[in-house]
Every structure is written in C-alpha cells, then in structure tokens.
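Q: Convert this sequence to structure tokens.
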Amino acid sequence: MEQAIQIKGLQKSYRNLNVLKGVDLAVEKGTIFALLGSNGAGKTTLIKILSTLLSADAGTATVAGADVATQPDRVRRAISLTGQFTAVDDVLTGRENLVLIAKLRHLPEPQRIADELLTRFNLAEAATRKAGTYSGGMRRRLDIAMSLIGHPQVIFLDEPTTGLDPEGRIEVWNTIKALADGGTTVFLTTQQLEEAEQLADRIAILHEGKIIANGTLEALKQLFPPAKEEYVLKQPTLEEIFLTIVGGKE
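A:
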C-alpha cells in the first residue's frame, strides 16, 4: 500500500535535551495513525517537523511524497494541521470562518465551499451564529472543517479532543472516521488510550524520544501475556451511563 508519511532516523534536540532519538515510522495512505505518548515524549515536536514548522537535526521525513526539509512548499500544499486548541475566530460566524480560509487559500467560490463543509460537519443550522457561542465539540468540528479547505492529502491532529466532554469527543471521533473513509490520511496524537482504540488502524508508542511499539491494536495486544478467562458481570462504564442518561433527556 502507498505510504503517505515515511520517517527514517529522525532526531531533534533542544540545547542539551534530546527530544527525538532516531524515530522510524511509516503511515499508509488513507488510514488513521495514532501516536501515543506522555507529556514530553516528543509527539508535538514530531508533528512540527512533519508539518515543516521545525527542522530536524538528523534523519529524513517525507509527507505525500515530498521531503519536509528540501521541499517544504510541496509539503504545506499537501497537508493541514489542527493543534491542541481550536483556531477559530469567535467573533465571526461559522460560515464566515470558513469563507475567510477559502479566500486566504485563493480558492474560487468560497461561499459554496463553506456551505458544503457546514453541511458535511452538521453545522448548517449554526452557520450564522458566532463561533464563540458554539459548544466545544462544535468548535472542534468547525476547526477541522477549516483545516480541510483545499483538500489536503494528510491532516495532522494534535490531541484533538483535549478538554471536550464525552459527547463532544464522540462527535470529533465520528468526524475523524469520516475523513479516513473519504481517503484523507489522519496522523493523530493523543494521550487517551480509548481514543486510539476507537479510531486507529495502526498505533505507535513514543517514549523518551523513541518508538517502543508499533502495529495494529491486535498486534500490540500480543505483546502482553494471554488474558486469564474469568466470568464476571459487566458493569456499564461512566461514559455509557452519561450518554444513556443524556440521550434519554433529548
């Protein structure tokens, strides 16, 4: 299968701190790839290098067939980046945010582009409301919609559900799944193990600047001893309880 991202021997240091210590990764086109790691593991640094915001000290990386060091313009035309915090303008309406980005990208028919994305992300009814009045999940969906203007081949999502409630998190999960179904490659960083379980085709763990595990969820499960079979009464999780109660009120 065609590779959307290829990383070999990537290294990065800040003064005396080695953040990335020879990272090797490959991400297949049209898949969701989850990078797990604790704070300070180097996840955001890796994304900054792949999105040409930061230079590596050693190693190579290509995104959508373009080298991040020698062909940064080609990389930028092929990608989009959504950070940990939404980048929407709260004073503008949802539609105005989308139209603004379309115009900045010099795309024809910005109003049509905005309307199509509002419909796609279930924001049409809130299109004329200021983004500052949106819920956390709606703001994040609008943020991702803005990132898709121009049809990027690869989208980087740096902890996209940080600070969201359970409903907002599931809204974003559904959006991410739809992106991959449409052929977009999604590179996702997260500290939430459940998020990776729900979304990712492949999962890698970055620890102290190195990839210590990489594979499908089933493959990673094989790294652990076989589970002991026991018969217990399954109790609903707090998230299941919350969503059931809230859903019953609607």
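The domain at 3-88+134-249 is CATH 3.40.50.300 (Rossmann fold).
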